[in-house]
Structures are given as structure tokens and as C-alpha cells.
């Protein structure tokens, strides 16, 4: 459990968290987590964001093509076990599913030796914020007010005027139709990283998981947990698979701005297949207690200059510290054992 759930020794974000800051203007990780609690309330034992979720497990089968980009062992031809988690954004573990809510898929690759690779991906094509302060400000600006149940338009307008890149990113996301479930949804690692191969060549990359299940446009369905219920039912009929595709940047492509997509013409390398073959109610020993810190990386993968990476690592560490010291209540999504994947 220490290796799976704890803060790894290679977690560079832990050092930023220990210092209590992660941006030049001294926005502190504790203050950031406090804002999540202010917006969503405090729910003991749950993540401060992506609170609602289920644990999953399976394998990643590398096809060997990724070794041209990175020395990481996960890209060799072979099989790597994974612990994963499907989730919805937001800090309310009992919130009803909404098709437009950002979906998450986090994966922990259990590599040979003492190394791990952890990544937390979402189903939208760009991130809504370029810098941590923008994320922090957006949470409050878009918080629904009691009188209308909707965000205050004056606060939203002021936020968008201050962060025009967020307005552009929101427009991109608004034009992207989500699928009707987790199993047929793409998931993107929106931050840039750096891959280094055996020859010492380093290239900036981003990666995506592209589903094998056919796309069907999403519509609202009955039931509080309809997206998770559909995933449970789908896994009951067999494993679900995604192809991992790595996109390689060219000179001039931004590596420090996750609100901007790279051109579709960039080189893409399919490096393997992720298979999820089992789901479980969150509990000790599975994904519940994993900190999916995106800066826990194996040799051959390194962070880029994207300022969100250090912030994510620091805030995840603070959230992990708080929730693991709190009493745990049952997950909002229960996976009946008789309906687990076979």
C-alpha cells in the first residue's frame, strides 16, 4: 500500500507541497484545496476534485513502437499491470451524473523495479486554464449562487476578461460533443511532457487514449449514477480497450499552455493498448487510496515547462494528506461483485 497509495520518493511535487507554494505569486496548495472545499463543501475521506468514481484494473500491452521516443519500460513490447480509476470532475461524491461533466480516467502503471508511471486524463480536448491562478479564480467565478442556481454573470465576465485564453478554451470544449459513456470516450493527457529515447533525443509529447468502442453522442439517462451504471453493464459483457497514441510536437508548439491544442498534422505514434477488465467499489487496496500525481514518472519521461504540472502535483499531495487522515464513508458508486467484468 505504501508503494501504491503513498507519495512516491520520485514525486517532485512533494517538495513543492512541503514548501507550501507552487507559483511565483505564492498561491499555496492548502489555499487551493480550501477553495475546493468552499465551492463543493467538505466530504471526509474523498478527493477534493473528481470525488465521485470507481476503481478499475487491467493491463497495458506495449507494441514496442514507443521505444523510438522513450526508454520507459512501459513502451517495450510486453504487458504491464495497471490500477485505474474512472471519475467525474467536481468535489461532491454524491452528485448526480451529467453528460457534460468532465470525465476522468487515471492510470497507475506498475512497472518493473521501483518505478511507476501515473497519469490523470480527461475527456475534453484542451484544459480550461493556462496557469494555476486561472484555475483558482475560475472555481469561484463559476460557482452557482443561491438565488439563481447559476454563476454570477458579472463575476464570469470579469474572469473571462482577465483570462481570455480560458474563454477560447471554453469555446473549444463547447464545440466538442461528449460520448454517451465512459467506455467509448477518448481521454487526453492535456499537459506536455518530454520523452527521451536511448539515443538521448528528447521530444515534447502529449498522449491520448482512443476508445475501441464506437462513438455514440451522449444524452441524459435516468438514474443518479447512469454513466457509471452503463460502465458497469458494459464491463459485464467483456473488457474495454483504448489505443494509446502519442503526439510529437514540432518547434513552436506550446508546451507551457494546455489551453492550446497542437495541430492535427503532428506526428502520432500508437504505442500500445490499455485494457480494463474489472471494476470495483472504491475501498482500501485499490484506486481509492492512490494519489494519481502526474509527476510520478519513470526514466524516459520528464515534466515539461507547463506550470500546471507542479501545481497539480502540489494540490494532489495536499488533498491526499487531508483525505487519508479523515474517516472514510462508502463510495457513492457501488459495483456489485456479480456484475464485475469477466
UniProtKB/TrEMBL annotation:
Family annotation (PROSITE patterns): CATALASE_3
Cofactor list: heme
Region feature Disordered, mapped onto this chain: 319-342
One Pfam family here: Catalase
EC code: 1.11.1.-
EC main group: oxidoreductase
GO molecular function terms noted in the UniProt entry: peroxidase activity
InterPro entries: Catalase (IPR018028), Catalase_core (IPR011614), Catalase_sf (IPR020835), Catalase_SrpA-type_pred (IPR024168)
Keywords: Heme, Iron, Metal-binding, Oxidoreductase, Peroxidase
Gene3D superfamilies in the cross-refs: 1.20.1280.120, Catalase core domain (2.40.180.10)
Chain ranges of the Catalase core domain: 16-337
Function as written in the Swiss-Prot or TrEMBL entry: Has an organic peroxide-dependent peroxidase activity.
Family: Belongs to the catalase family.
Protein name, per record: Catalase-related peroxidase
Organism (species): Nocardia albiluteola
Taxonomic lineage: Bacteria, Bacillati, Actinomycetota, Actinomycetes, Mycobacteriales
Amino acid at each position: 500500500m505504501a508503494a501504491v497509495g503513498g507519495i512516491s520518493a520520485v514525486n517532485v511535487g512533494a517538495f513543492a507541497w512541503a514548501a507550501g507554494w507552487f507559483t511565483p505569486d505564492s498561491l499555496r496548495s492548502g489555499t487551493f484545496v480550501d477553495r475546493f472545499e468552499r465551492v463543493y463543501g467538505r466530504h471526509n475521506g474523498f478527493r477534493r476534485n473528481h470525488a465521485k468514481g470507481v476503481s478499475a484494473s487491467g493491463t497495458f500491452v506495449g507494441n514496442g513502437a514507443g521505444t523510438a521516443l522513450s526508454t520507459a519500460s512501459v513502451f517495450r513490447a510486453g504487458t504491464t499491470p495497471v490500477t485505474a480509476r474512472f471519475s467525474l470532475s467536481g468535489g461532491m461524491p454524491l452528485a448526480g451524473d451529467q453528460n457534460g461533466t468532465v470525465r476522468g480516467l487515471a492510470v497507475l502503471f506498475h512497472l518493473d523495479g521501483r518505478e511507476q508511471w501515473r497519469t490523470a486524463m480527461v475527456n475534453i480536448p484542451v484544459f480550461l486554464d493556462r496557469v494555476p491562478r486561472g484555475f483558482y479564480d475560475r472555481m469561484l467565478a463559476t460557482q452557482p449562487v443561491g438565488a439563481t442556481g447559476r454563476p454570477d454573470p458579472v463575476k464570469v465576465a470579469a474572469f473571462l476578461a482577465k483570462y481570455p485564453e480560458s474563454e477560447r478554451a471554453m469555446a473549444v470544449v463547447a464545440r466538442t460533443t461528449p460520448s454517451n459513456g465512459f467506455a467509448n470516450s477518448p481521454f487526453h493527457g492535456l499537459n506536455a511532457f518530454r520523452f527521451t529515447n536511448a539515443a538521448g533525443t528528447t521530444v515534447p509529447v502529449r498522449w491520448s487514449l482512443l476508445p475501441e468502442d464506437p462513438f455514440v453522442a451522449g444524452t441524459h439517462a435516468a438514474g443518479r449514477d447512469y454513466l457509471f451504471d452503463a460502465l458497469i453493464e458494459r464491463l459485464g459483457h467483456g473488457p474495454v480497450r483504448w489505443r494509446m497514441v502519442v503526439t510529437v510536437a514540432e518547434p513552436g508548439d506550446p508546451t507551457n499552455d494546455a489551453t492550446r491544442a497542437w495541430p492535427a498534422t503532428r506526428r502520432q505514434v500508437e504505442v500500445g493498448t490499455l485494457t480494463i477488465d474489472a471494476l470495483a467499489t472504491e475501498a482500501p487496496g485499490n484506486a481509492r487510496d492512490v494519489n494519481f500525481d502526474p509527476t510520478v514518472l519513470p526514466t524516459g519521461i520528464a515534466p515539461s515547462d507547463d506550470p500546471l504540472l507542479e501545481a497539480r502535483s502540489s494540490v494532489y499531495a495536499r488533498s491526499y494528506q487531508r483525505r487519508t487522515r479523515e474517516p472514510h464513508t462508502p463510495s457513492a458508486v457501488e459495483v456489485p461483485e456479480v456484475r464485475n467484468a469477466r
